Structures are given as structure tokens and as C-alpha cells.
Amino acid sequence: MSDVTVEVAGRAYRLGCADGEEGHLRGLAQAVDGEARRLLRQLQTQPDEGRLLLMVALTLADRMVELDAGSEAETARIAEAEAAAAAHAEAMAAAEARIAELEAALAEGGERHAEAAEAEIEAAEAAAEAARAAAAEAGRRAEAEAAARKEAEGRVSALEGAVAAALTETAELRRALEEARSGALGDGEAAPDLFAGDAAQGDERAERIEQLANRIEHLTEQISLHLGDR
């Protein structure tokens, strides 16, 4: 396991990953950071960290769904291109077989059929060449569609990782809230650093905890509404 420090929206996070995955994790973090900065530029107010990460997660998840739909369409186009290539290849094989038949007939029929047979051979050769060109074009289209699909799948994978990281941060914030609430209600243990203070600040911590709980509840409602619209 390796530890990697990444930065999202101006805040540093230390995350663990498998050996060799450091660059991939940094790339995902850069995607999340870029989306977070874009949202911050668009918003007129500065959202709290949990709301910002949730907005980033929803945005990336929406793009992932769109990419999934696009990937299905690309798969259908690839199948069509491959079917067209197979049809052209079949036509080319038929034309080549006909050429062979005509060449055999020319050899057996003598000179009286030579001119007509040669003209038909030329026409068959032209048809075969056209079929070859069409098959080559269909093959190029299939390769291009396959490359586009592979790129889309890579983007989906990156977005899935980015969404997972953002949702993990949101879960950690909720866990910190529950730990802070437990400390503020008098379990005898000190509150986490996020809500640290002496006993005289208990009311203030409780009020902050309640505010954060209300925000999380509001965000949860927004998630439900968003998923319902989808």
C-alpha cells in the first residue's frame, strides 16, 4: 500500500492506494479538483465542503450515466459497421468466384466467347475492387468505433473512481458529525477537532452540530430529488 497526498478545491487529502496506482489516483483527484473549481467559479456563494463534494459527485455521476448511454450507442454502431464489413467481404468473395468461373469458361469456350467473357471479367473485377474498397472502409469504421468505445470506457472508469472518492469524503464528514454529536451530548470523551472547545462552548458546539445535521439532511433530500428526476 502507498499513501498519496492530493488536493481538491484547495484542501489537501492523504489517501491510501495499491502500489503502482499512485498516478491513477492523482489523475482522478485532478478530475474532481477541476470540477470543484469549475463549480466554485459558477456559484455566487461559497458552499461548505460537504455540499461542494456532493455537487461534484452528482455532476460526475451524471456525466458517467451519459457516457454509459453513449457507449451503448457506440457498441451498436460498431456492430453495424462489422455487419457491413462482413456483407462486403461476402460480396467480394462471390465476385472473385464468378471471375474464376468466367476464366474457366474462357479457357474452354474458345475465341468466339473470348470478347464477351473478357468484358464480363472486367466488370466482375471492377465489382470485386469496389467490394474490397467498401470492406476496407467498413473495417476502418469498425476500428474507429472500437477506439472511441475504449476511450469512453476509460473516461467512465475515471469518473466512477472520482465519484467514489467524493462520496467517501461525504461519508467521512457524516461520521465526523456523529462523533462530534456524541461528544457534545456528554459521553465523557472530548469532541473531535472539528468541534473542539472547553465545556463553556458546549451550547455553541451543539448548535453547530445541529446546523451541520440540517445541511446534511437538506443535501440528502436534494440527492433523492435528483435521483427521482433521473
From TrEMBL:
Residues 78-141 form a coiled coil. Keywords: Coiled coil. Residues 183-202 are annotated as: Disordered. It comes from the Bacteria. InterPro entries: Cell_div_ZapA-like, Cell_div_ZapA-like_sf, Cell_div_ZapA_N. This is Cell division protein ZapA.
